[in-house]
Design brief:
This protein is of the alpha+beta class. The protein has 13 helices and 13 strands. The N and C termini lie far apart (about 95 Å). The chain binds adenosine-5'-diphosphate.
Length: about 450
Amino acid sequence: MVWFLPRLLAILLALALGGGLGLLAGAMLGLAEIGVIVGAVAAVAAAVAVDVLRAVRLMDWMRGDLSTEAPRSAGFWGELGYRLERALQARDLALAQERHRLEEFLSAIEASPNGVLLLDDKDQIVWCSAVAADHLGLDARRDLQQPITNLVRMPAFVAYLQEGGWREPVSFVAPGGQGNLQVVVRGYGDDGQKLVITQDVTERMRSDAMRRDFVANVSHEIRTPLTVLAGFVETMASLPLTEAERARVIALMAQQTDRMQLLVSDLLSLAQLEGSPRPPTDRWLPVAPLLQRALSDAITLSAGRHQTVLLALPEIELAGLEAELFSAVANLVNNAVRYTPSGGRITLGCVLKPDGSAEIEVHDSGPGIAREHLPRLTERFYRVDGSRSRDTGGTGLGLAIVKHVIQRHGGMLEIDSELGQGSRFRLLLPAGRVRSLGRLARPA
Ligand code: ADP
């Protein structure tokens, strides 16, 4: 009650002063007692009037714009105004800090690749992140307070939301039919609110399907030669064979084991390509010996059945891994030999382009490839003519390896072909991985 004392003292002082002055004035008129009373009452009334005036000014301020300064009166009302002003400022600061924290929190949620949605106990949308709105085809502002089941009508989603429990996430085709979504719901708060998290699982489902297909394809590729081998083993075990028959069966068995070995070796190459770091950009290898070696392998494989031509080569070096680049070129030349009928022509060349990039090209006069197959040729195990591929020792993985290698080197594989018009396979290497020996040789 200390704050009250000055106020009391002021009123007592006013009383004493008013009484004193009243006494003096009253004495002159011969009405000393009345003078004291009138003087005291007038002084207290004046003190009260000042108080009321200050209180009214403070009230006016409180009814008006509280962000302005409180009236600076002296005494009790001045201090009350000042303290109110300080309290309001502290509250505004705390509110601003809270708002800032909330905004940061919401931006962090917005930055998440997953969508977040808050529902009340009636499944009405309370808050919705932009990602969730995009996933579920909602409008993050317009659809607030709308029941979510009126807007997202996927039966799998509606049933999941209503079932309760929500132990496992649910997956369904995204509204609009583009991609797949996975949704998980969790309850929170005391009033049945729900947190809904949405995730785009299109890529994951695609790669799961690819993995399943890949395992099925590998199993199929291995099972066929294994079945043949098992048949031959049984034949050898149960039938008395002549020496000539035995030799023929063993040759056929060797053919099947070769096929399995090739497949395993290609699978290992792919696995290695996928698991290893990008090829170095500072290990340079001349292009000419690389192509000469690939062509000499092709000549051996062709055994004189084709005309092979190596075009004039530019004096350039490529940056990368020799084993990988050789395997890419060798796979293309090998395919050209295997798919081009006897008497055909196979050309291997390389050009340095004006922009500094290089293009290695393998061209054959073979049967060509129909347009509809071109986009799928580099898929693992995709074959246009399965029996021709297998009969010539193909695994269906060659072009997948080529594409992987060239992409790891920052380049591209381009395929140009038409039925009956032969095929052209080009490896494009970016300028950053090509340097001209001629330019290097020149004095600086
Ligand atoms: P494969 O081991 O079956 O040759 P690839 O991945 O190397 O597998 O090639 C995929 C398919 O592309 C082959 O099965 C074949 O049908 C087709 N192909 C590849 N190269 C040629 C070519 N030079 N001429 C015609 N078809 C080709």
